[in-house]
Specification:
Membrane topology: Multi-pass membrane protein
Largest sheet: none
Number of strands: 0
Number of domains: 2
Keywords: Cell membrane, Membrane, Transmembrane, Transmembrane helix, Transport
Protein name: Drug resistance transporter, EmrB/QacA subfamily
Structural class: mainly alpha
Helix content: over 70%
Main location: membrane
CATH class of the largest domain: Mainly Alpha
Pfam families: MFS_1 (PF07690)
CATH architecture of the largest domain: Up-down Bundle
Distance between the termini: 17 Å
């Protein structure tokens, strides 16, 4: 990218571009958690089990995850404007399909189409932000991104809880649809092209292998809840997932233009940061899926109450995001992440003793403190990891980071829901709620173990400031040349 183009990018009026990207990303992320509180009514409508119904959330995350590495190729092939308009239009079509879906299968197709559009939005936004903001402002810029990434999940469950209590669940999609259409119209007028096209070759085999690999693992882990861990379908699907995923990774090392650049994992801080991001995302989305099922189907709360329980925590996380961005610009990531993960571990452990008597206040307060902990980890750990990479690897680093987080969230949620179903003393319709809740508690024990592993990893993050990061990046670039 030439200097003059870089200057033009810096002189752009950033506000309209940032606004369009943020609102598009907001709708995309809103949809990850939109169905959290609506899953029980959809289960009743289509007569589904927990393990099948959570597919509506996990398939969205998974397709999102698979789309992210492909987006790196799309960003280098199409102009930013064309890509944004296509992504938002695809998303709008998916939303329409979900709204009119007559069967569970068609609802799933709608979710897949939605996710294909949404999966392009996030990496596109991250890439454009990294291009239009200089390195010393990135902490604050990413804080704004964090704000959107946190407010959307806050509003999702509460909005769906309110809708589901007063209207059919389909209304949710018809609230989202006009918003998506407005964003498309505005983007048509204000979006500028800020990315450079290099027209890389796309490796179709890699896309097939990654889809089969991640998809196989997800299907295996989530089917275990319905069929048991030693069922042939479950074992076969896990085996296919593991084998094709290994083939995918090995193939990436041979390609000159890999879909996911696994060489970014040579930078130890980046690898640790990615692993921590994966664990935190599992803990976040897993809890947001399990708690509403527990609250509505086992503890007798209304959909609106289960949405309201999530809201204060998610709002707190949103408010904290720009603040942690600023703290990060001053002190670096290490202590923020260690404190955040300690809070996450303790509060997850506090969810291991739920019962039919657990109060709404207890659930809301613990969940809020837990989200406060997560807010101290999410953006700092991502930025710290990316700051260790040479500039040319940043888009690949972003893709790797986002892909791994989405995949971890979808597979992690599937595992936690499966643990919940398998560990329940009795999951039948006439089961005593306390027997079902036993499974929820066991799932949170597993989540506590995961958070603890993340906390141990946090001690291996190097202490550094943005100036040292810039020096590290320049050194890495010189070494590569």
């Amino acid at each position: 990218m030439g200097n003059n183009q870089q200057e033009n990018v810096q002189q752009l009026n950033k506000f309209p571009i940032v606004a369009v990207l943020l609102s598009g990303a907001f709708l995309a992320i809103l949809n990850q958690t939109l169905l959290a509180t609506a899953i029980p009514p959809i289960m009743a409508d289509f007569n589904l089990t927990e393990s099948t119904a959570q597919w509506l959330t996990t398939i969205f995350m998974l397709v999102n995850g698979i789309m992210i590495p492909i987006t790196a190729f799309l960003i280098e092939t199409f102009t930013a404007r064309k890509l944004l308009l296509t992504a938002m239009s695809t998303f709008a079509v998916g939303t329409l399909i979900c709204g009119i879906a007559p069967t569970f299968f068609i609802l799933m197709i709608g979710r897949v189409v939605q996710a294909a559009g949404a999966g392009i939005m996030l990496p596109l936004m991250m890439t454009i932000f990294l291009l239009i903001f200089p390195i010393e402002k990135r902490g604050s810029a990413m804080g704004t991104v964090g704000l959107v990434i946190s407010f959307a999940p806050a509003i999702g469950p509460t909005l769906s809880g309110w809708v589901v209590e007063n209207y059919p669940w389909r209304v949710m999609f018809f609230i989202i649809l006009p918003l998506a259409i407005i964003d498309i119209i505005v983007a048509y007028f204000v979006m500028k092209n800020v990315t450079t096209q290099t027209y890389p070759k796309v490796d179709i085999l890699s896309i097939i292998l990654s889809t089969l690999g991640f998809g196989g693992l997800l299907y295996g882990f989530s089917s275990a809840g319905n069929y048991g861990w030693f069922d042939q379908v479950v074992l076969a699907s896990l085996a296919i997932g593991a084998v094709t995923l290994t083939a995918f990774i090995l193939r990436q090392f041979k390609l000159t233009q890999p879909i996911l650049e696994f060489r970014v994992l040579k930078y130890p801080t980046f690898t640790i940061a990615t692993a921590i991001g994966m664990i935190v995302f599992m803990a976040l989305i897993g809890a947001e899926t399990i708690l509403p099922i527990y609250m509505q189907n086992m503890a007798g709360f209304t959909p609106l109450e289960s949405g309201m329980m999530i809201m204060p925590g998610a709002l707190l996380m949103g408010f904290m995001s720009p603040i942690t961005g600023r703290i990060f610009d001053r002190v670096g990531a290490r202590w923020l992440v260690i404190i955040g993960l300690s809070i996450l571990t303790i509060t997850t452990f506090m969810f291991t003793n739920l019962s039919t008597e657990t109060s709404l206040t207890y659930l809301t307060v613990v969940f809020a403190i837990r989200m406060f902990g997560i807010s101290m980890v999410m953006m700092p750990v991502t930025t710290a990891g990316l700051n260790q990479l040479p500039t040319r690897l940043i888009p690949h680093g972003t893709a790797m980071n986002n892909t791994m987080r989405q995949v971890a969230a979808s597979i992690g949620t599937a595992i936690l829901v499966t643990v919940m179903t398998a560990a329940a003393v009795d999951m039948s319709a006439d089961a005593d709620p306390s027997e079902m809740i036993h499974g929820v508690n066991v799932a949170f024990y597993v989540a506590t173990g995961l958070s603890l592993a993340g906390l141990v990893l946090a001690f291996f993050i190097k202490r550094s400031t943005p100036a040292e990061d810039r020096a590290a990046m320049e050194l890495a670039e010189e070494n590569e040349e």
